[in-house]
Amino acid sequence: MVTGAGSGIGRAVCLALAERGARLGVVDLDGDAARSVAEQATTRGAATAAPVSCDVSAEGAVREAFDTVTRTVGAPTRVFANAGTEINAPLHEFDVDTWRRVIEVNLIGVFLTCREALRRLVADGRAGSVVCTSSPAAFVGHSGGGNSAYAASKGGVSAFIRSAALDYAPYGIRVNAVVPGATDTAMLVNGVAYDARKDEIERIREAAKAQVPLGRLARPDEVAAAVLWLLSDESSYVTGSHLICDGGLMAKSANDF
């Protein structure tokens, strides 16, 4: 089961799992996007793919999404809690409703998704793997600025996975986080006005690339490969960890000598 599956990294994870014949719950706020990815997953080899529209910040909606996925493709033992949003502004200009929405989607959404997964795994006596999406913003300041709400939400995710990993290790359930750096997805330029010129969007993309030691943006499929490893039994002794997939961004000193 993948949340935020309608685009970007979530979509890439669904398609990579599809190529391995997985049964998929494709969950996204945008129902049309979820249906499109489910169709693509089926053509890529998924045994079955069920699209579900869900606002992960709504408790009842998350419960219903798990019910739908369980009924149509089977109870999920591998869950990628990936749905997120990014809204940037100088802190002194942030209104509380916007701040709250970022926290609701990025942190409460992860909590609700993981809680529902964990409840069901524990009740059924099954082991499993849960992966959450964190960010370098959880660990270091964002050079673009105005990132306080997003950073706070992702910092919460990183603290959350460590605690959950300890609590559920006795059940054979692993909880980890992937930490993508600048990735070539729509979210990379979410802070740009919707009517911004193409050259302005390209300027932001080039500025992001310049910060990365590998000198380029990540492809969504590269981050998906990291997620698949954490979901799989190949990482069977890994829990409470962060898999950093950022092209060396967090390893780089702020000082260029």
Automatic annotation (TrEMBL):
It comes from Phytoactinopolyspora alkaliphila. This is SDR family oxidoreductase. PANTHER family: SHORT-CHAIN DEHYDROGENASE_REDUCTASE FAMILY PROTEIN, SHORT-CHAIN DEHYDROGENASES/REDUCTASES FAMILY MEMBER. Signal peptide: none annotated. Residues 1-181 form the Ketoreductase domain. Keywords: Oxidoreductase. It comes from the Bacteria. InterPro entries: KR_dom, NAD(P)-bd_dom_sf, Sc_DH/Rdtase_CS, SDR_fam. The lineage of its organism: Bacteria, Bacillati, Actinomycetota, Actinomycetes, Jiangellales.
